[in-house]
């Protein structure tokens, strides 16, 4: 059972890349050391600076110390503040605390920098212990840093997970007996995680919580079954959190949009069409799938115009819904609109539907009676009704 989640800092919690790489380039240039452009200095993220200057640029220990000192001239005053926490990290940390987890940091970054950025972001109180290095002892191994964090959190190695973005984090986790989680939003790669034996490789911030709670499923193999004009179907072999195998049948979908639009008479624009899978004619809000690389907002304006001949200047986002998460990755983005002007419909050749209107109060009643069955329509109606009641 996981009791603690330990995070690397650079590239895992916080995108410090610009500040670190520009400061490294500043130091190298100051000593006329030939080096790539700063954008190509990703290898400075993760390991101790002293080690990187020696290994990557053939510097002696004494010269590497001079480079570190020059690096810190810029980083302390400028580079530190070029950092930004990754989207979703603050809410993830709060959820993990709500789940009863202890939170720690195991970083090769000087603790002064880590604490300052956490304080600036208002996140420091979420952590039970920060294990990092000092300016005078910044070559401590990742294993030692993680070991200290485990001790101060008062948890055993099999009660914690280590979340990081480089193989140094995975190696340190393995050496301490901690479950390793490699994240793909930082500076590492899937290949290096595989090479270093990461147990989990994740690409979404939210997946950290799933791993910590023992709910995450690791994909081992994907077998394509069908590829059509709209969807593709595949069967995946997965490993459950208890290390037992299972299979998942999945439908990939490009996603779609739905728009609840009211005219000046408080009537909702609807379409009525025959839905072949149900062999039934149903009422729905205007909706459609996303085209390749299409922005959802633009898609919503397009679908409203095509299906109802309606043009609106502004849409209000109503959030996203997962219509059937048991077997498909489809996401529908909902929008609200009002006071449309009208022009001609632009239906596809194989699209046959009837545009109509219905009083919002009547539509709400039909939703509650069960006469309206389309999920996106029901959710859009309920969301808009709630917003109007505020």
Description:
By secondary structure, the protein is of the alpha/beta class. The protein has four domains: 4-13 and 83-216, Rossmann fold; 17-82, DNA polymerase, domain 1 (Orthogonal Bundle); 219-252, no CATH class; 256-389, Nucleoside Triphosphate Pyrophosphohydrolase (Alpha-Beta Complex). The protein is 34% helix and 28% strand. The chain contains twelve helices and 20 strands. The strands form six sheets. The protein has a six-stranded parallel beta sheet with strand order 5-4-1-6-7-8, with helices on both faces. Strands 15-12-18-17 form a four-stranded mixed beta sheet, sandwiched between helices. α5 (111-121) links the parallel β4 (102-110) and β5. The chain is elongated and about 80 Å long.
Q: What is the compact description of this entry?
A:
With 390 residues, the chain is of the alpha/beta class.
Q: Which bin fits the share of residues in helices?
A: 25-40%
Which class do the helix and strand fractions yield?
alpha/beta
Number of domains: 4
**Number of helical runs?**
12
What oligomeric arrangement do these chains adopt?
single chain
Question: Any low-confidence stretches, pLDDT <50, length ≥5?
Answer: none
State the CATH superfamily name of the largest domain: HAD superfamily/HAD-like
CATH topology descriptor of the largest domain: Rossmann fold
Task: Compute the average pLDDT.
Answer: 95
CATH architecture assignment of the largest domain: 3-Layer(aba) Sandwich
How far from one another are the termini? 43 Å
